[in-house]
Amino acid sequence: MWLSDSQKIGVGLTAFGLFFMLLGVMMLFDGGLLAIGNVLFLCGITAIIGPKNTVAFFTRREKLRGTACLAGGIFLVLSKYPFLGFILEIFGILNLFGDFFPVVFGFVKRLPVIGPILSQPMLSRFMPRESRTRV
Questions:
Q1: Does 98 score more than 50 pLDDT?
Q2: What is the DSSP string of 103-135?
Q3: What's the pTM?
Q4: Which of 41, 49, 90, 112 has CB 3.0 to 4.6 Å from 17, enough for a Cys bridge?
């Protein structure tokens, strides 16, 4: 599957958003870095799947709790409560994107260097056995 130019930009924006969020946590929950990470992450998701599909994804009935938690977390980060906001954001992200984790783990298990490491008995207990979708 090939990505269009806007989707490639979206992947970059999402990666930078996650990087800034990680950097914000490493800098003891710096609100500015977390806010930049939030904006880049949301812009990246929008660029990857398109504005119409983004609105449809975040407003699905089964995703409303995750959407509310993510929006509340972003509001708390912008309101100078970065620690509580980040915790709420993580809960929202897990609720929104939790269905994709088995697919990601299935892809990672097929990588040349990481796959055999994750197939070790000690680590395989924590990894999902199968993904529902083929990668």
A1: yes
A2: HHHHHHHTSTTHHHHHTSHHHHTTS-S--SS--
A3: 0.81
A4: 41
